[in-house]
Amino acid sequence: MIQITYNGNIESGEAEVFWNTADSEKKLLFEGHGEHTETISLQGGWEYLSLEGDELEADIRVKIE
Prior knowledge:
With 65 residues, the chain is an all-beta fold.
């Protein structure tokens, strides 16, 4: 298992953080402003985190433990 902490200070635009796996569609973990934490159980195979932004101006920090 891993723990992911997102901290977003959004000045303008939109931000979304997704968890992606080979077996399923991407899962929305976090969006917007503020601090959020999520625990993920690893399934095996390829898995990754992705960030999508639209006209985004922000300071975004992601910590994975």
